[in-house]
Amino acid sequence: MDKHLLFTPGPVNVAETLRTAICKEDICHRETDFDALLAGIEHKILSLFQIRNRERYRAVVITGSGTAANEAILSSVVGDGAILILSNGEFGGRLHKTSVIHNKKTHLIEMPWGIAFDLPQIATYLSKHKIDVVAMVHHETCSGMLNPLAQIGALVKASGALFVVDGVSSVGAEAIDMEACNIAFVSSSSSKALGSYPGLSFVVGRKKQFKRLKHHAAKTTYLNLATFYAFLKNHNQTPNTPAVPLFFALDQALTDILSEGVLKRHARIKARADLLRNGMRRLNLDFLVDEADMCSVLTTVHIPASVSVHDLRAGLRDHSIIIYEGKGCFADKVFQVGNIGELSDDDIRYFLATLKDVLLTLQADAADLVTPVRPKQEPPTVLPVPADLRVVS
Ligand SMILES: *Cc1c(COP(=O)(O)O)cnc(C)c1O
């Protein structure tokens, strides 16, 4: 099979160290080898989060992609209480859809995709309703917008609710200060900014909150966080058969990140995003979200008029480059370029040169079809605002 450069927010091109790690010896997950492996992974995850009072936090690892960790949180933390989902995109929508299945009292504050939350509106909502848990996506991958953890964490704290966060696409690239942002539980996965293979996810949480989970009636068996916590605490194991080779790879990915240094790693990903963004700006492309609000893992770009996202994606694939198409209300309007995983600066330059060629070819084809005389530059596409601000309870 041909090698592809994955300019996506995940899955990513993995490092050679991980290809070696995944082929380690066969071990049994009910033996001390696995206990040590899991303990090592947990220790490294807590180091990745740079938690100061680390004895107050624990991390459980789940065999399943990021959605499994989110569903574990949403099915295990709320009990009979009320949860408020804050959504401004596809993944916030998924949190809502999942919560509705598990929690009768699911509230929703929904903004159009790619639009920032209105903090006073959230504060007012929390003062008028009895809410026990608030859930939000940190990096809304559908738009590339980073939602403000500290500010929303403070509002949630003032209301007395628990704050739970989907950090699937930001952990490993952006700092998440669980203590300062008042986060009770955060989810993430192996295959995004951590740079490992897909198939594992994890939940980091305050020990005090993990302990309280046993008081809630279980709404799932496989994804019950209380069970994961009990097995971790009592045996350093997982409740069911884990995907052991993926644990070896995740352990290696975390080792690599920690030996580089967490902050250095964040800075390196950001520098790569800057290289990519500067290059795309030179091609007269413009971005969906203000750069100040963007996560450093991914850039969401307006497709130039006369070019279809589908053709652009196919054209790039012919040169072994994989990008994402916008989904939902962004379909045919934007494309997304990730910059995580094993991509070098040379790969970024190759991407920019190829993007330029493919766009020029597609625009020339369109010009031949439409009119022989074309303006030098098309105006940027303006996205329609998808839906009115909606508050549903
Ligand atoms: C990728 C992603 C998920 C999880 O998706 P999976 O299909 O389970 O990998 C959840 N939330 C966000 C923000 C994501 O980017």
Features:
393 residues, alpha/beta, Aspartate Aminotransferase, domain 1, disordered C terminus, binds pyridoxal-5'-phosphate
Describe this structure in words.
- The chain is an alpha/beta fold and 393 residues long.
- The N and C termini lie far apart (49 Å).
- The protein is 40% helix and 16% strand.
- It binds pyridoxal-5'-phosphate.
- Pyridoxal-5'-phosphate (PLP) binds at residues 65-67, 70, 91, 137, 141, 166, 168-169, 189.
CATH topology-level fold name of the largest domain: Aspartate Aminotransferase, domain 2
Tell me the CATH superfamily of the largest domain: Type I PLP-dependent aspartate aminotransferase-like (Major domain)
**Total helical segments:** 12
Shape field: globular
CATH class of the largest domain: Alpha Beta
Q: Strand percentage, roughly?
A: 15-25%
Bound molecules: pyridoxal-5'-phosphate
Number of strands: 15
- Evaluate the radius of gyration: 22 Å
Strand order of the largest sheet: 2-10-9-8-5-3-4-15
Gap between N and C termini:
49 Å
Percentage of residues in helical conformation: 40-55%
The SS-based structural class is alpha/beta
Order of helices and strands: EHHEHEHEHEEEHEEEHHHHEHEEEHE
Instruction: Tell me the CATH architecture of the largest domain.
Output: 3-Layer(aba) Sandwich
Biggest sheet, open or closed, and with what strands and sense?
8 strands, mixed
Mean pLDDT: 94
Number of domains as seen in the coordinates? 2
Low-confidence stretches: 386-393
